[in-house]
Amino acid sequence: MLIKLNSKIISVLPIAIAVNIACVLIWLLNITDQSMPLILGVIAASLVDLDHRLSGRLKNIFYTVIAFSISSLVTQYFLNQGIWFVLAMTAMTFLFTMIGAVGQRYSTIAFGTLVVSLYTTLAYLPDTPWYINPLMILSGTLLYSFITVTVHLCFPNRPLQEKISRAFVALADYLDAKSVFFDPDDVEHLSQKQLTLAMKNSQVINVFNECRTALFYRMQDNNRYSYTSKMCRYYMSAQDIHEKANSSHFDYKTLATQLKNSDLIFRIQRLLELQAQACRDIAQQLQKNQDFQPHFRLERAISGISQSFELYSQQHNASPELVHIKTLLDNLRNIHCQLQSLSQPIHEPEQRTIYSENITGLSKILQRIGQHFTFQSPLFRHAMRLSLVVLICCSLVEYFHLQTDRGYWILLTIIFVCQPNYSATKLRLKQRIIGTILGVIVGSLLPYMTSTLEAKLAVVVIASTLFYFFRSNNYSYSTFFITIQVLASFDIMGFDIYAALLPRLIDTLIGTALAWFAVSYLWSDWKYLQLNNVISQLMKSNANYLLYIISHLQFGKGDDLKYRIVRRHAHDNATVLSTIISNMNNEPKKYTQHLQQGFELLKLNTALLGYISALGAYREQMQKLTQDVYFLSEFYPIAKKIIELLDKMTTLSAVQFDDLFQPINISIKNSLEQNDLLSSVFNMPMQQLNLIAQLLPPLYAAIPQTATQTIQDNKHEITST
């Protein structure tokens, strides 16, 4: 707990220092009337604080200040201008939401810019000169930016270190989920284990993507720092460990039955658990900024499992599963070697390339945004939904003249609560309401506890810091502290705090109700379920992944960067499917006809990725295979037919699928019946093709018929046109 706390403290240092300085300035200069926009400027800047190298941070600050200036000035100009203000807010909401299509960096700054426009309305006072609010908000933004750059100079590697640490924690959870497959006393719950593994795999891929982006920004400079190279090495090792752990070589139920009376399967499970603990140890050492030292039990477990396998192979030398067990153990030894390598210093770090889809240039940015101008895009639906709600809310505030009553708290609630999908919005609604109610209750006691300006400013500092501390991991707490901060700010500005309590609560309830209505009835997710497109992309990415591995096997060489890209795309698409199924599971009544098939598809795709990954992990042992005429004539034609079937799977009718699958099945059976093949080194890759092929019929059956029918109908329409 202390280790995590230290990391969190470093992350909240900028806002804690910035709000402290702002409150000291408010006290020294006696500018209590301008305290709210100044503090809100600091908070807005913290919302767009992105991890980057120094030059990247300065560039982000430059763009942020420009965006905040335009947003605040435009909002201030159109305030109290009726329909023009409504139209301006609606247009900004739609524009800033759609900018999120470009990437996370643009999305974060755009959201912060939209929040600044709302902060400008909330801090508005009729008697204050027009330029004061924008000036104070920008002053708070620049103050926070200066502090965050200073903190970055003191702890330049901490954010990257934290991401790599989280990657190894996620990897440890994945290895633990994998280890339960080797429990011979629990073979009946294999389906649930596969679903759990799929969810853990999604978490690993999401954290890996964060690490890749952070490394990409830091490695853009020609001068690569040694610590960045070290973290890149850790990231590459984590990827290699995941590839080996993701590999599947057999049916786990069959293996557990065969090995249930042998200590080998228990040793495999124990070794995976020890390797998971080693990954957690690496994460902790990174947090402590110390070198990793593997536990002696890990080496002892490797030695024990080797002896156990040698004894088992002597007793079962005719077993066809021996080659697969040996390949599994080779992968576990490879994971062990990767863990061992991280404990050894590298004097000449290997130059590795990090790839990230970084969109640059105005034409490409506009093209990417234009691709989302369709109701099939969740982002476009979210932008339309949010814009319409903003239009309604602003119109109500203007019509009923609620500006001076802080009616725009409703709008602020909507912007923060309304998420792109129903499940996330539903969770935010509950957390927002709970946090606000508790904040109002505690806030009502503030006049009794803070009778002096110094005490009120101290409450603002503490509440703002804790708001940021809980912002990403507990939204209820975050809402609770920002409510207290707002009420304390009202008290500092001279407003009656008790007059603000009930409106704050009512505005929150109205805002959450409007957000719920928007995601439930305005272009609802379940009316635009794109499961067919997701499955099509998933199958094509699996086919590309297998194609690259087969090409590497055939020609004996391959580009490691390209391999990692196609592998990541396959896992990214699997993560998209996992996220969709998870969201569907939160609303089972709305997705009854798709949910069961979705779970089955998720399990089968997890198994398929495991079988393909096993071939990928084997690609380095290709020297003998590329020299054998028999292998070339048997293996590659079958593999290419499987790739073609995977690529076209969602477009095939049942008859077409059967016509393509039967020749593959017959060819594999004929190849496996060759005695010389069974006793050669070619058994493993051919068996992997057999495992992949046997998954194809249930995989095709799990694809919703609406998916194949929709794609076929689209093709018929195009043909007739």
Automatic annotation (TrEMBL):
Predominantly, its location class is: membrane
Q: Which UniProt keywords apply?
A: Cell membrane, Membrane, Transmembrane, Transmembrane helix
KW Glycosyltransferase (keyword) present: no
The membrane spanning regions, by residue number, are 12-29, 84-102, 109-125, 131-155, 432-449, 455-470, 477-499
Q: Which is one Gene Ontology cellular component term of this protein?
A: plasma membrane
Where found in the cell? Cell membrane
InterPro entries in alphabetical order:
Integral_membrane_YccS (IPR010019), Integral_membrane_YCCS_YHJK (IPR010020), Memb_transporter_dom (IPR049453), YccS_N (IPR032692)
> Residue limits of the Integral membrane protein YccS N-terminal domain?
60-339
Q: Keyword Transmembrane helix, does the record have it? A: yes
Q: How does it sit in the membrane?
A: Multi-pass membrane protein
Integral membrane bound transporter domain segment(s): 393-517
Give the similarity note: Belongs to the YccS/YhfK family.
Instruction: Spell out the protein name for this chain.
Output: Putative membrane protein (TIGR01666 family)
Organism whose genome encodes this protein: Lonepinella koalarum
